[in-house]
Amino acid sequence: MENIKIKVNGSEVEVSPGKTVLQVLSELGIHVPVLCHYEPLMPQGSCRLCVVEDRGVLKTACTTPVEPNMDIKTDTPNVINSRKLVLQLLFTERNHYCMYCEVTGECELQDLGYEFGLDHFEFPTYERKFPVDNSHPFIIMDHNRCVLCRRCVRACSEIAGHFVLGEMERGIDTMIIADMDIPLGKSSCVSCGLCAQVCPTGAIIDKRSAYLGREVQSDVIYTNCDLCPVGCGIEVYKKKGANFIVKIYGDWNSDVSQGVLCKVGRYLSLYDEKKRLTGIRVKDDFGYRKISEDQLIKLVKDKIDKGIAYVDGTLFNEELELIKELFKDKVYALNPEEIPISSNITLNDLDNRNFYVVIGTDLNREYGTVGSIVKRNVIGNKAKLMVIDKEFNSLAKLADYVFNIKDMSMALEIIKKQDDVVVIYKDINSDEIKLLSSLTNAKFLYLPKETNSLGLQKLGIKHNNITAEYVFVFGKNLEGLKNLNIKDSTVFVFTPYENDEIHKATVLVGISNGFEREGTFYNLEGKKLKREKVLRPTYDTVDLKTFLSQILGRAEKVS
Q: Could you tell me which of 101, 424, 351, 368 has the C-alpha nearest to residue 231?
């Protein structure tokens, strides 16, 4: 299509058709104030702050498409006065006393007040008190600070796919509600936290990050979550000059998750309450005694030739490669996992499908970003959903078909009649694999059990329950340790957490964990992702990669 000619502030410009006035003005470098508009969301035009004048008529720039012969003016007295009037109404409708608000200094409404030089209001300020919802474990919803931009409602549905938030009442009485007006903490909210990330004021805030510091007081580290094999892109806000994390946001530019996170990545990664294993300990007749890292290096070097290694899928590729080199390929996966049907679809391609089949997993509780994609298509785009599981699955209430996993053959008869099918699966047996393999009209997405399960596969590391005089165990998920035949072996365990199983070991080594580590891993799509180190270790722990490199003579000791 040919370009369209329009005038902008008296100058003629050519623009591509299909764009909004706001998009054109942004491309031309012309600032237009916005509040309800947020780039990843569909434009709504509810705040009216982006009004511009076109041939004498005020129009919202964010929702108005460009058309031939437009004469756009962005700074006429009519435009400026209209924006100021709207801004005053927003400030006076509810409680916006900035000095008491948690987000003062990074509030978009406050910024607009400074931009327009508001130093008084021509209307009476608010008199009505609105409720504050403190029922949620991670989020506070303060309706007194809400400007009804509806960003949270749109983000919850359009992006996160959960469709929890909505509205009730009309006009200035409008309130954002969860489900059918129940407390947020008792609603169907899955704690993805996207509402708090997109809120322009202090209406929805994270409890943990409140008053810990402004974004300008933080260093932002762009990295990937390593708590599940999705590997969502995250923005980590670390307080400048301090060794703690203020908050975590979803990274809109991530080609994995496009800004979406789950409860684990946004919140639980900062609420680690497990007891850490610290120091280096060796068991003798009187219990465990501490030894130095130099003593540990000598001990490991002396025993490594007679030893084998077990690793789990929480280790990074660099650590796995060093372990393979040290143990001359006598390395085995601690937890058995075979990938029965390889994935042949990416997360980006998972969108806009007609028929989703979810087997053996509740996507509201794990792999949450995958759940967001499925739910926004099932609820928003009216795609069909089949849930196959052996126990209760919260996705069942959205499903067109629900089957017990023992009735897989019946389910397949329905699947074979559909088109554009995606099967998302986990934990299936050999009979179920055989049945699924017969499908010719489906794409498959396997959900690995551990973060770097595909890294283990690429390095050829498989499960094998064998023993040796010395057994070295590395990793965080030590469930498989109880199944090993190690009663006559001397066992070395390198892990970040205390648990009942590790006390079978002769040597215990606390290793760095979470944001104290760096390395790469392969996510469920097979993409190699980087995890950046954000924090200095706060416990007496060993950096596993550095330790292994020292044994190979490749690294100096890190103090």
A: 368
Kindly give the interhelix angle for 544-551 and 317-326, rounded to the nearest 10 degrees: 30
Separation between Cα atoms, residue 101 and residue 94, nearest integer Å: 13
Q: How far apart are CA 119 and CA 101, in angstroms?
A: 18
Structure tokens at 533: 């180190």
- Together in a domain, 172 and 199: yes
Report which DSSP code applies to 138. Answer: S
**Closest alpha carbon to 513 in 558, 474, 456:** 474
Q: Please report, as a single letter, which amino acid is at residue 417.
A: K
The three-state secondary structure class of 230 is coil
Q: 398-416: per-residue pLDDT in tens?
A: 999 999 999 999 999 999 9
CA 549 to chain centre: 32
Helix (H) or strand (E) holding 412: helix 408-415
Q: What is the mean pLDDT of the chain?
A: 95
> What is the phi-psi region of residue 258: left when phi exceeds 0, alpha when psi lies from -120 to 50, beta otherwise?
left
Q: Do 94 and 184 reside in the same domain of the chain?
A: yes
CB distance 42 to 63 below 8 Å? no
- Give yes or no: residues 463 and 435 share one domain: no
Please state, in angstroms and rounded to a whole number, the distance separating the CA atoms of residues 36 and 49: 8
Closest CA to 54 of 66, 68, 70: 70
Contacts of residue 23, defined as CB under 8 A and 6 or more positions apart, other chains included, come to: none
Domain total in the chain = 5
Burial 124-137 (b: 16+ CB within 10 A, else e): eebeeeeeebebbe
Helix (H, G, I), strand (E, B) or coil at 158: helix
SS (H, E, C) 103-131: CCCCCHHHHHHHHCCCCCCCCCCCCCCCC
Q: 429 vs 425, 432, 442, CA distance in Å?
A: 11, 5, 19
* Structural domain for 136, as ranges: 90-206
Determine if the pTM surpasses 0.90: yes
Per DSSP (E only), the strands in 230-293 are: 233-239, 245-250, 280-284, 287-290
Domain stop point among 206, 226, 260: 206
* H helix or E strand, kind and range, residue 469: none
For residue range 216-275, what is the model confidence (pLDDT) as tens digits? Answer: 999 999 999 999 999 999 999 999 999 999 999 999 999 999 999 999 999 999 998 899
- C-alpha pair distances (Å), 515 with each of 194, 226, 241, 300: 21, 9, 16, 26
How far is Cα 231 from Cα 525, in angstroms, rounded to an integer?
9
Nearest CA-CA partner of 358 in 337, 391, 394, 389: 389
